[in-house]
Write a sequence for this structure.
């Protein structure tokens, strides 16, 4: 393991940013989100959870796909600019890091999304252990260890130092490039003590041992037809906040925007909570908010695991627990439907 004093981190950022687009948790407009670093950026590595998740780095909120230029009867196509830049994302928490594996299942495994795939291939992920998980966190329920966050490089902030440990070939490559900024750290005890403290906090959190055993593919129809969805969803505003902050939500739309000289086709986040989501000529396949609400949670807890060897499409980050204006969230669903055993 190696370590660097926190006061020397700006020099490290500056060095990494010479060859890579460097993304960090950055304070801007009243909140902290992952954004591209520059020397004026206000980096906040102490923030437990960015408001939006880290998924934007691979799956941006809006992405230009192709442009059609129309000149009379002539149509020309401008090839899209592919994301070839090397990227480093620094300060990713264990839950967001796991979410990338879930997004890979959606965007790489069956029908690869070239833009997403290229960004994933070009990116080195530097994770950071969560020094103080909060009461909305329940990553442990999904087998995620916030004290050992994995990624290409794992880091821990303890006593004024950032401790650094590479895990993969990409991580070793980055470590070789930046090694002159670090000193060797032969004593792992500071990190090990912090890991024990983190795990002790997590064991005491209210949702850490939430019971997911009810959510199995063989219970699909029973869960789908539960009369409890009505009361669970009644207060839902269909605002989509839960989906936009969620690291594993992956719904998107492809739209055309008419420019002065042609058409710009772009891809943008969408939400299964919106009334016009997947609206077709014949109308909407899920006309009520109850159906839309049920879809979101059935997808995360039953449909996705059915198609992916039992892996849930939730990482327990707790963002929906904290951000829903109506205090509706996945924990409430798990607890309410889980009681039906
Ligand atoms: S569950 Fe909450 S955050 Fe999600 S759409 Fe409904 S009201 Fe909005
Ligand atoms: S459903 Fe909620 S807790 Fe689960 S990953 Fe999404 S925002 Fe986080």
């Amino acid at each position: 393991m190696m370590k660097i004093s926190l006061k020397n981190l700006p020099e490290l950022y500056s060095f990494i940013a010479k060859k890579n687009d460097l993304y960090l948790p950055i304070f801007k407009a009243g909140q902290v989100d992952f954004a591209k670093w520059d020397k004026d950026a206000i980096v906040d590595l102490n923030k437990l959870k960015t408001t939006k998740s880290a998924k934007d780095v691979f799956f941006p909120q809006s992405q230009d796909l192709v442009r059609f230029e129309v000149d009379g009867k002539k149509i020309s196509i401008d090839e899209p600019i592919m994301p070839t830049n090397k990227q480093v994302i620094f300060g990713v928490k264990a839950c967001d890091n796991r979410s990338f594996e879930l997004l890979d299942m959606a965007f790489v495994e069956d029908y690869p999304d070239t833009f997403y795939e290229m960004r994933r291939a070009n990116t080195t992920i530097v994770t950071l252990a969560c020094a103080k998980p909060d009461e909305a966190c329940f990553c442990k329920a999904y087998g995620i260890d916030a004290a050992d966050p994995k990624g290409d490089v794992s880091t821990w902030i303890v006593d004024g130092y950032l401790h650094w440990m590479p895990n993969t070939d990409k991580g070793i490559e980055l470590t070789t490039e930046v090694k002159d900024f670090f000193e060797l750290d032969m004593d792992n005890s500071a990190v090990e003590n912090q890991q024990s403290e983190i795990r002790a906090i997590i064991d005491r959190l209210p949702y850490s041992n939430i019971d997911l055993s009810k959510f199995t593919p063989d219970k699909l129809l029973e869960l789908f037809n539960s009369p409890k969805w009505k009361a669970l969803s009644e207060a839902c505003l269909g605002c989509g906040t839960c989906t936009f902050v969620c690291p594993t939500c992956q719904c998107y739309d492809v739209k055309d925007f008419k420019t002065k000289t042609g058409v710009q086709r772009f891809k943008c986040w969408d939400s299964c909570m919106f009334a016009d989501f997947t609206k077709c000529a014949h109308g909407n396949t899920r006309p009520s908010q109850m159906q839309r609400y049920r879809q979101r949670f059935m997808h995360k807890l039953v449909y996705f695991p059915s198609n992916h060897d039992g892996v849930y499409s939730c990482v327990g980050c707790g963002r929906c627990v904290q951000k829903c204006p109506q205090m509706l969230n996945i924990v409430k669903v798990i607890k309410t439907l889980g009681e039906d055993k």
